[in-house]
Specification:
Layout (H helix, E strand, L loop, with lengths): L4 E3 L2 E8 L1 H11 L1 H16 L6 H9 L2 H7 L1 H14 L3 H9 L11 E5 L10 E8 L7 E8 L5 E6 L3 E7 L3 E7 L11 H8 L5 H8 L8 E7 L4 E6 L4 E5 L4 E4 L19 H15 L7 H8 L24 E9 L4 E6 L8 E4 L1
Parallel strand pairs: 2-5
Antiparallel strand pairs: 1-2, 3-4, 3-12, 4-13, 5-6, 6-7, 7-8, 8-9, 9-10, 10-11, 13-14, 14-15
Helix pairs in contact: 1-5, 3-6, 4-5, 7-8
């Protein structure tokens, strides 16, 4: 039976079974989130010059054949979700893959470390999510167990589209947005996030993170419980898999690999990312050998460069569509299969334990 609860104000849902059954169940449980996302979609379109609902949906549908080819099971989940939520299918597909990209303020800070550097010999992957503040209203903690895949726990838009997560095979997917200059029509980058979480080993997870026919890409940080840690910096047409050769890594929102520098759209807009990367690296180095869950809260609460700091705060001087805020942070303990989740700014809360 689906179980509803609340962790620090976030809706909590769960589902199991076939992909269609999972989508149907999550759609019913998250009807309020789906309706909220649809309302936001329509109001955003209405306020965008030259855009109509029909044009927006027609654009999103262009990538659907590739999504079906690459991951038909995921399309089944979304079809079930649309049915359960009572929302038109093409609206669901658009809102999950396009609405999060409206606006200009995007961030995220990630840290991953293997057991060599942690207090209790655990592998950790930590992530803070910096997006438009209103997106916090669209999130749920979802625990999903397909019949034919490892179960996973994730923070999901609408309860169905993971933004980051950890599965029962000890695979995690975190990461951050990159702004590359080679966008094209193809598989939406959000699909790769879901596909990584269905894998059972690091090889398959890395392959899943970079589908050849993608239209865009995140920097996907893929880790496993053995302490294998990769930062896969992607664009639409290229990538570099940066290995954590020293057992840990930090990443924010600009390319670190020289191979990918030419795909950076405009480094002049990446100053917050540059500051957050250097600051998090400096702070984390001091913790090596004694890293634990509380370590990440301290670092992710840092305010150097405020409000564009690691702990991002909305700037009231900016229009709503340009504001950025840390809406949640999380620490995945891949060794013990435990997620620690904190809603809102890390400086204002404490992590709560969520067991897979």
């Amino acid at each position: 039976m689906p179980r509803k609860a609340s962790i620090s104000g976030l809706k909590e849902v769960s589902a199991s079974g076939s992909h269609h059954q999972i989508g149907l169940s999550i759609g019913k449980q998250c009807r309020d989130l789906a309706q909220r996302m649809e309302k936001r979609f329509r109001s955003t379109v209405a306020s965008t010059p030259g855009l109509t609902v029909q044009k927006a949906l027609a654009h999103a549908r262009k990538s659907l054949p590739l999504t079906r080819e690459y991951f038909p099971e995921y399309v089944e989940e979304l079809e079930g979700y649309a049915e359960g939520a009572g929302i038109p299918w093409d609206v669901v597909y658009f809102t999950l893959h396009e609405i999060p990209m409206f606006g200009t303020g995007r961030g995220c800070t990630d840290i991953a470390v293997n057991a060599e550097w942690t207090k209790d010999d655990c592998v950790f992957a930590a992530h803070s999510d910096d997006v438009s503040p209103y997106l916090a209203q669209h999130l749920a903690i979802s625990r999903i167990k397909p019949n034919d895949e490892p179960g996973f726990v994730a923070l999901c838009y609408g309860g169905i589209q993971p933004t980051s997560g950890m599965n029962a095979a000890g695979i995690s997917l975190t990461g951050n947005a990159l702004v590359h200059n080679d966008d094209r029509m193809g598989i939406p980058k959000e699909v790769a996030v879901r596909n990584v979480l269905r894998q059972s080993n690091i090889y398959d997870a890395l392959v899943a993170s970079m589908p050849p026919k993608r239209g865009n890409s995140y920097n996907n940080i893929v880790c496993d419980s053995n302490g294998e840690i990769y930062s896969v910096e992607g664009s639409a047409t290229a990538f570099d898999a940066v290995y954590a050769s020293e057992g840990w890594l930090v990443h924010t929102n600009h390319y670190l690999s020289p191979r990918m520098w030419g795909f950076e759209r405009d480094l002049h807009t990446r100053w917050s990312s540059i500051i957050r990367y250097n600051r998090a690296t400096k702070l984390f180095k001091k913790e090596l050998g004694k890293v634990e869950v509380s370590t990440f809260r301290r670092i992710l609460s840092d305010h150097v460069g405020y409000p564009q700091s690691i702990c991002r705060h909305a700037d009231p001087a900016l229009p709503e569509e340009e504001q950025t805020q840390t809406i949640f942070s999380e620490v995945f303990d891949l060794t013990n299969k435990v997620a620690w989740i904190l809603q809102g700014n890390p400086c204002k809360g404490e992590y709560r334990k969520y067991e897979l």
